[in-house]
Structure formats: structure tokens, C-alpha cells
Amino acid sequence: MPHAPYQEVTMNATLIPNRSRDVQVAEIGVNTLIMRSRTWERLKFEVEYSRQRGTTANSYLIQADKKVLIDPPGESFTEIFLEQIAQHIDLTTLDYIVLGHVNPNRRATLKELLSLAPQVTLICSRPAANALKTAFPEWDSHIQAVRSQDTLDLGQGHQLSFITVPTPRWADGLCTYDSATKILYTDKFFGAHICEDTLFDEDWKTLDAERRYYFDCLHAPQTKQVEVALDKLMVLGAKCYAPAHGPVVRYSLSRFTYDYRQWCQGQKSQELSVALLYASAYGNTAILANAIAQGLIENGINLSGAEVTSLPFQAGSNTPEGIGTSCGVDKQIPCLYQIPSTSKASNCVVKIAHAFSLSPAE
Q: What is the DSSP letter of 124?
């Protein structure tokens, strides 16, 4: 059955839209600071922000014998973030920057950081390393790719363990666990788009709607990979989740983990299944694809989706009843699909969306 529609957020519930962007800094563990770049208004036009509760871009700074910055924010916060971090560390002493994922928005901040801290090493998954080396070949000597179970000793008991968590949306996903504080840096998992002064999730029941909406927008189309990631992360024994967005999870860790499991199972149990494939040159098609995905999810349809340039479709036990494809007209990003001539896939109905593209200026 489709889950109940989300309640509309009224203007009275929207958090102080006139407050300027800032960076909230607090200690969340031994030698560990959170730096929350905050906006009280809708950050972007993607569906995941449509609740209009603001958001935070959470970064983390561990200062042991070695010093590491985890997940610097995107370019919307570059200036205020650099001003704030300079008050807490001499950037010429920063040893590492760990990246949970890489996207063009985050690269702007990385360029500024590398100009201020040319000695730093970027730690990321191999897919992320390949993307960075392609985009910035001059950074090659600064990039260190890691795999699951690789570790990094920062001294003073802070040993970081890395866990690769690839999904269709973030093939380069990487989580990081600090054995000293038992904090698991979860990047895109266990987050929510909401901006508040409250740092932790003490009043976690009030976060239920935001958490579920975030999951449905980002993870419902990739529940198989989410479950694999959960299996990897649960063996670590974390006492705290430090996500990329929203409150730090300390008080509802078990419940939130359980919710993720239940939401994955609920999505997989839907009778109707649709695969939504799209290519997006400038991000506009991605916005439309996210809106379509949200509509399908809210109507109880099992959705698998990915941004692709070329993806062969293979029949299997979860062959979808329908495939929606969308792509821009940019010739550099063709959207290709193949429907196998097997009896299981013969009933698959293919619906191709009208091709369109908007220029970056629009």
C-alpha cells in the first residue's frame, strides 16, 4: 500500500528564512569538531529540498597527531566555511581530506582548500579518485584511493576505517569509522534536510517525517544497495552516526537503523516495479527525474533508478513492468537502453519520455 502523503510544511513551520547562512561549530567527540554549514532556506531546486526546512552541510575535523577534514561542503558555503575553519586549524598543518563522495559542487571548495593547504592528501574511493584525476590531472599526486577495510592511523587512538558503499546514485560512496570516538561518518546515509540550532537528535520523533522524506528521495530507488551498505556498517559497533546533512544521530541510532531496514523492505514488497533511467548534462533532467521518482514512490511503486550514459538492461527476477527513460539533447550524453528478447522481459512496456534540455543559464 502507498504510504501516507507527507504533510505540507506551512510558512509558520519554515525556519526563520531571513537568517543568513552560517557555520555552527561544536565538539562531538574527543579531538573531534563538527562544522555545520547552515542555510535556513531551500538550498536547491531538487525534490529532496522541497520540504523547505533548510539544510546543513556537515563537515568534521579530527585533530590528533595527524589532522583530517571529513567532507568539506559544496560551493554554496565555500567562503564562510573557509573563514570558519581557519579559526580552528592552521590549514598548512592539515594532513588529509576524506571525501564520502565527489561531485562538481564540492570540487569548488576542494580547489580553494588545496590552494591553502598544498600539502594535503585527498582520501576517497577508487571511483572518486578516477573522477578527480580526470577532472584535475594536476592533483594526481595528492589523491589516495582506499578500499573497504583500509585504515589510517591518526594517533592518540584515532584509527580510521574505510567502508566503500557504492550505490547507483553515488558509485563512489565511502563511509569512515573512528574507533576512538565510535563515530561513523555516514555521508548520504541517515541524514535529513532540516536546519535547526539543535545539534543532536534528542527530540528524534519530531524528525520522523524529514528522515522518511530524505530516504524516499535519495534511497528508495536503490534499496538493494542500501541493504548491502547497512550490512557492512552494522558490524562496526558505532555509537553515533555523523551524516552529511541534518542532526548528528546519537539518541535514536537503533531506531533509525531499524527504520532504514523497514523502509527498504517496504519498497521491495511493492507489486509494481519501474526502472527510471536518465542522463543529465546540466542537472535539469535530474531534477525532473527526481520529481517523477517521488511521485512513483508515493503511489506505492517499487522504483529502481540511476543516472546513466549507457546501461544495458538485463532481465532477471526483478524485471520491471515499465521503464521510463529521459535524456537531454546534449550529444555528449546519449541515453542508451537494450531490452532483451527473453520471455520474462517480453511483457515489459517501454515508455520513452520526450527528450529535452535546458541551457545552464536557464
A: E
